[in-house]
């Protein structure tokens, strides 16, 4: 074979599109798991920690229990963030044999972004909710507005993660054609 023929063969093989690797679909699936599990961990921690504070406060001031449920509701919303992003990521994984490495890892990043930011927000909501409702009861409701503002900013951390995760997930399949469908995965 001549040098020119070897060069032409090398150029032709360089332009071939690789086959989609099954690990890419697995990484996208890990994004689903990361979003729902970490978001629910944050929601559960925030609910439990704030619930303990509400229980302790309810002994002193039973009339403030209903007003003090706001941290529990805000923590529960974090689980919904994880659910929303998981459903969107699952929608992007409808064709397992066509998921490129770029798409799989982008969906993993999207899921981890939503899940970990929701977990951090749940941690903050739980701590603020626990201490806030107790202190609010001790000072006859004078700290309520301040506690709500702190909770809003803590919830915003989870919302920021949701927004970034949705942006990343929406652009995950923008680079279609990076690999050829893997027929072994499709069967």
Number of strands: 0
The assigned structural class equals mainly alpha
**The CATH superfamily title:** lithium bound rotor ring of v- atpase
What would you say the CATH architecture is?
Answer: Up-down Bundle
Structure description:
The chain is mainly α and 187 residues long. The chain has helices at 3-14, 22-60, 70-92, 101-138, 144-170, 183-186. The protein is rod-shaped and about 90 Å long. The two termini are 39 Å apart. The model has no long low-confidence stretch (mean pLDDT 88).
Topology:
Blueprint: H1 3-14, H2 22-60, H3 70-92, H4 101-138, H5 144-170, H6 183-186
Helix pairs in contact: 2-3, 2-4, 3-4, 3-5, 4-5
Structure described in brief:
By secondary structure, the protein is mainly α. 76% of the residues lie in helices and 0% in strands.
Key attributes of the depicted protein:
76% helix; Four Helix Bundle (Hemerythrin (Met), subunit A); rod-shaped
């Amino acid at each position: 074979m001549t040098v020119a023929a070897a060069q032409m063969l090398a150029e032709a093989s360089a332009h071939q599109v690789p086959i989609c690797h099954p690990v890419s679909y697995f990484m996208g699936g890990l994004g689903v798991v990361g979003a729902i599990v970490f978001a629910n961990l944050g929601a559960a921690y925030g609910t439990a920690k704030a619930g303990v504070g509400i229980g302790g406060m309810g002994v002193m001031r039973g009339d403030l229990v209903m007003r003090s449920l706001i941290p529990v509701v805000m923590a529960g919303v974090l689980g919904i963030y994880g659910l929303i992003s998981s459903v969107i990521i699952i929608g992007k994984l409808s064709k397992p044999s066509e998921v490129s490495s770029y798409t799989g890892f982008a969906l993993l990043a999207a899921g981890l972004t939503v899940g970990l930011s929701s977990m951090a927000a749940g941690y903050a909501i739980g701590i603020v909710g626990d201490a806030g409702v107790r202190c609010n009861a001790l000072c006859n409701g004078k700290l309520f507005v301040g506690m709500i503002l702190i909770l809003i900013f803590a919830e915003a951390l989870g919302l920021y993660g949701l927004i970034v995760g949705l942006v990343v997930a929406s652009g995950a399949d923008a680079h279609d054609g990076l690999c050829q469908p893997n027929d072994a995965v499709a069967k």
